[in-house]
Each structure stands twice: as structure tokens, then as C-alpha cells.
Amino acid sequence: MARVDYSDLSQVIASLTDGERDDVALMATVACEVHHSDDRFDWTGFYRVTEPELLKIGPYQGGHGCLQIPFSRGVCGAAARTGETQLVADVDAFPGHIACASSTRSELVLPVHNADGEVIAVFDIDSDQPDAFTQEDVVQMAAILKATFAR
Prior knowledge:
By secondary structure, this protein is of the alpha+beta class. The protein has helices at residues 6-17, 23-35, 74-82, 135-149; strands at residues 43-51, 54-61, 68-70, 86-88, 106-113, 119-127.
């Protein structure tokens, strides 16, 4: 099973996104590179804050996702509402989980902040494996997102 090399991944993303300021272009690049970096990552993408208390699907890799998610629902909503990373080992045990794909067993959702510290999106990584994500994934993905969007 291929595991992500975070040093390589962060360098590739930094190189590809150097000088780019368009959030959608940045999101598309990050989703693609992260998705193909690790066999654990079954669905990888962004839900963008498009109006108060509402996320809409943004660039992603994998099967279809939910088109919109209110801040009040699910793992993505919790990350957007609280501004805190959600590391969920078993999605069936998460109160109010929204099953956009029945194959999802575990999930990592990180808030995406702009340079002003505002949550502009959440970055959602789903796995078809239970308890697929580690604290290292949290730290490394947060660093990649900060370097890409909060500059």
C-alpha cells in the first residue's frame, strides 16, 4: 500500500501553485495531488463557503459528493462551524454524519483559512478503510493548506 510522502507532496504542491492566487485553481491542484498521493484516500476535495452557514462542493477527486452541506450538519459542517479539524475514525459513530458515499468508513476534514484567518472552505478526505488517518496526517495536511491558502 502506497503511503504519502509528505515532504515530496508539500514540495510538489508548492511548486505547482507558486504565484497562483485563484482559490479554485489552488483547490483543484491540491485535491488532485493529495488524492493520488496515498491509497487510503478514496475521496479528496473541498467544500467552499459560498454563503453564510453553507458549504458547496468545490474541486474534488473521486466519486460524486454532496452538492451542499449546511454548517449545522455532518463532519464537514462541524469543521466549518468550529474552525477545528475533525478526525473521525468511524463515520457511523459521528452524530449527524452525512453519507455522501456509502463506502466511506473514516474521514479527515480540515478547515481552510485565508490570509485574514477566515474559513473559506473545508478540505475533506474520505477513506473506505476504518481509522485510516493519523495525527501526522492532521499536522502535515494543515501545514500544506496553510502554506497554500493563508499567504
